Every structure is written in structure tokens, then in C-alpha cells.
Known about the structure:
Layout: H1 2-9, E1 31-37, H2 45-56, E2 62-68, H3 71-76, E3 80-82, H4 88-95, H5 111-123, E4 126-133, H6 135-150, E5 156-161, H7 177-197, E6 201-206, H8 213-216, E7 231-233, H9 241-255, E8 258-263, H10 295-307, E9 313-317, H11 331-348, E10 353-360, E11 368-373, H12 375-378, H13 399-409
Amino acid sequence: MADFFFLIFGINNTLFINDTEDYMKTSAVTGNMLIAQSGGPSMVINQSLVGAITEAKKHKNIKNIYGSLHGIKGILSENMIDLRKESTATLEAVANTPSSGLGSVRKKPSAEDCTKIFAVLKKYNVRFFFYIGGNDSAETVHIISEEAKKSSFDLRCFHIPKTIDNDLRENDHTPGFGSAAKFVAMAVMGDDLDNRALPGVKIDVIMGRNAGFLTAASALARQYPDAGPHLIYLPEKPFNINKFVGAVKKTVDRLGRCVVAVSEGIADETGVPIISKFNNETDSHGNVQLSGTGALGDLLAGEIKKKSDISRVRADTFGYLQRSFPAILSKEDAKEARLVGKEAVKAAMKITSGSIAIRRKPGKKYQVYFEPVPLKNVAKETKHMPDEFINEDWNNVTQAFIDYVRPIVGELPKVGVFKAVKVKKA
Length: 426
């Protein structure tokens, strides 16, 4: 009866639905643990790594703690390190360092890969497997978990959430997003000050394949009435180039300048990403490669010059800068990233598989809690910015979004501008 009570109420007495596929009650097992990182790095992904390691050390049934270098690629090649032998000082130094301490990979495992992976895991007596990453990483864990069941391999499989895109389903927000959003807000704040000094049009292309959360966070840069970004374009709504140029021109006519934040994943009315017209490269999960090129910014800048009388137009693509920039951590982000790693290990003591979701408690005060959810609920598919976060013209965000994102990002530097009281001509 006590085991059933856990299955219904979960970790920290939080309610989740009992799912026999992912929440099968499990008796205690003893063996080694393997943890790895996958997908794009973040500023706090190592907090989750170290959180899981430190929690694992508290459980007697977890013996050795291995780290696979470069995700499942490292498992296949038996390229691993002994994390239990790392000192506390080293672990804490890594936890506070951006990027993936174990290295990363973008690889979707095949059934054949899983067979090889299981052979390695059995060779090293690994009974607990943890994978830190986004929705593609969750898909990888789900595939490995399902293949393990088919082969009757008793393996605890857990996904630990991470993505700066903030697009994992089941989560209010994800580790990595808060710090990346803080970087975006500060970078656009600087761009706006630059643009204020030398007026013109500035376009900032920001990461976001299907979800515009990170680009939308640029709105936090506004600290005075005419501050940018003045226009924000997200992949959730169709992008029309003529309306875009018209909105830019209208802003320039009103303010003498315009700062634009645009998601790299913006798509036309048919859902085709604008950038795909220039690049058809895909990864192993079938995603079109959006980063690593300035083509989108150049295209948008060119259209403004061609279809208006605005001559001073510049564009920057933030690219990977948003992921691993040191010294711009959101304190809340770092704290929550550590906790999801800990909660994943705690969950593995009770259930067979899952992903740890961050939930926000109702009320004005910002508070979160954590609970396990089925892997299939998080794998592959993404969540999007809700309509109430996007304005009616589809070129900006609402106050509801600002209220949502501000506590995740935390405090930003304060800037000052003159009130510009005009001196009467002599």
C-alpha cells in the first residue's frame, strides 16, 4: 500500500498520474551509475550533473559513478571517466562552469546502437542511466528505456531537463533558459544603447527553432520608455516580410531608430522556416540546422534596404554565444538546475524511468516544485509560447510574458539615460 501511495503522490508529495509504462514500481537494485550530457550546452548544465553526482553518493545501492564523454557516443566507445573519484572542490568548480563538462553529442540511437549500449552497460554493471539534455535527449532516453524493456534489461533510465529554448513539454521552464535569457536581455540592452547613440536599424537574430521564449526575453532590456527591442518576432506566428518592413519603417519614423529581436526559426505562412531557403542541412533527429550562419540577418537587412529609404541597417546573429557565456548566470536557474539533478536520482530509487519536470506554484510569489513525468510526454515534441504571451500584431510580447519570465531571469543591470530636457535656443 505504501508503494502505491508513492506512485500516486510522487516526490515531495506532488501529484502526478500513475502511468504503468513509465512509473512501474521497482524494488531496490544495486549497481553502478552512468551519466552523460547531450545536445547544446548551457550555462547551468553542469549544475545538474553535479547535483546528480552528489545525490548519488548518498545512496548505498549506487556504487561506482561513471561519466560518459560525449553522450551515447562515449558509451559505444567505452570512453568514460570515474566521477566518484573527483574531489568536491573539482565538482563544485565544474558545477559553476558553463558548457558541458562531459562533452556533448547529437546522436539518435538505433536499435542496433541500443544493443551495443546494453552490452557496455552490462559489462560495467550499470543499472542507473541519466541523460541531461533537451527534447531530443529525452527521445534518446525513451528509446533506450523501451529497448531495455524489450530485451528484459532491468535499467533505470532518467532524463534530466536542459534547454535554453525553454521548449520542453510538462515544464513551466527549463534549466538553462533563465541564464541564456539573461544574456539575451543584457546583449539587446547593450545593442539598444549603441543604437541610441548611432541611430539606425539593428536586427538581432536569437536562437529558437520552434519556440520563441528566448527571443521574447529580449523584452526585459526595456528600462526606459523608448528603449528597444521595439519589435520582436517569434516562430509561433507567421512571418510576413512586407509587414515586417512596414513595422520597421513605422518605428523609425516615430523614434528615428529601431532595434529588432527575431527568432532564428521564424517561418512563412506555410510553416517553412525562412532560413531553410538557404540551408537544408539536418541533424540525426531530422532538425534543420538553423545556427552557424548569418544568412537570416543578412536577408532581413537586405529587404529593409530594398523596400524602404532606410540606409543604415545592421544585423548580428547571436548563435552559440547565448549558451556558454561565463559570469551571467541567473541564480535561480543555477539553483533549480542543481535540484533537478538531485531529484532525478531520488526518483530512480522508486520508479523505473521518467523525466523531472519543473512546475510553478500558483500565486504571486515565485515558487517551484519538481515531479517525475513519463519520458514519452517530454520526448521529441516541443511546447510553444502561449497566445497570451504574444501581442495582437504578432510583433511583440505582452505583460503576461514579462511577469512570467522576470523571476526566472532575476536582476539585470540598471542603465541611465538623460531626460533630454531641451535647452531653448538663444
